[in-house]
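Run UDP-N-acetylglucosamine 1-carboxyvinyltransferase through structure prediction, thanks.
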Amino acid sequence: MNAFEIIGGKKLKGEIIPQGAKNEALQILSAVLLTEEKITISNIPDIKDVNKLIELLGDLGVAVERINKDTYTFEAKNINLEFFSSDTFKAKGGGLRGSIMIVGPLLARFGKAAIPKPGGDKIGRRRLDTHFLGFEKLGAKFVYDQKAEFFNVDATNLKGTYILLDEASVTGTANIVMAAVLAKGITTIYNAACEPYLQQLCKMLNRMGAKISGIGSNLLTIEGVTKLGGTEHRMLPDMIEIGSFIGLAAMTESEITIKNVQYDELGVIPEVFKKLGIKLERRGDDIYIPSQKNYVIDTFIDGSILTIADSPWPGFTPDLLSIVLVVATQAKGNVLIHQKMFESRLFFVDKLIDMGAQIILCDPHRATVNGIDKKYKLRGISMTSPDIRAGVSLLIAALSAEGKSTIYNIEQIERGYQDIDTRLRALGAQIKRIDGAGPSH
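Sure, done. The structure for UDP-N-acetylglucosamine 1-carboxyvinyltransferase is below.
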């Protein structure tokens, strides 16, 4: 197990560039399977989940070429469908939630696919029913092999249809869209997710020759085509990183400029941080956060306690709730954090309480934060990261805390954040990586 050792309480200063969006990458990379022509993708984040998917594409027979640090070309001319039944695929596919995303494109182009039971973050029951129900509506047939723990899928005759999704799942919508672009006839998807990442995927598919309308809304219409071609695509910056850096600046009283954020694609994210009292300003396509000693949480108009909750886009993304919670611990005022979309994502608050934060965990979905207005600093402790987002929240807490903190299981953080220690050191943070470390208890 590897760890980060952090000496907190230092003000940071400088510019930081967000990486390419992890959640967009998993969709966009899977889409290369829809054509045998070359696709060039840039601003790909160099992180474990994405690199594993690129490796999986290579194992499937995709010709992958790395042009520079963040740009690759993909040519899915010779796909080896036998790879599906191999132990290698089961081992690699089962350890990566993103592997579910290759099913839609493979069903569309080849009429069959297989998928092991997916793994990934332990943040409650993240069902895949939406994907499977959508494929079934298009005409796919699923057979679950209980012994091998594999789903085998037959989709030799996909036909367009009306689909009302049971939830506005981002990955579910993306997967069904990729299956539908080559299906016969017209597919209508209602209650579709409309995140910027999904809009990016639909725009890319249209450049490849797909006919998708309603992009950016929750009603997508897809007119099936017989073939798709190559294209070039650049990924958006990662909005979760951008939100994390806003929170980091506030907690550490730092003056930070976040570069090239594609501000218009950030939705309500800047406004939610402003509700916590954080000053930030848009400068062209950058966000400038001045050093501020204190920040005061808004109340509702009638004076009642502010609630910040997640909801499907264009609501506030669940991936930033843990960041908001951490930032609120040092604010002046109170806030109720309501995590509606996943259970058990708030279970890291016990670590923050150990650091001196005043938080009441009401139930698996809600926590009330009593901001201490920086009257005293959090104190450094040893802790273990439970998942990607909680890990970064604890990292931000540690950077603002007094004394030394050690965070174990940083593999979870590194699944989603590229070279995070190097980039933070460039801002003046005292953080070092310790390989092979393990908690003493």
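The chain has 14 helices and 23 strands.
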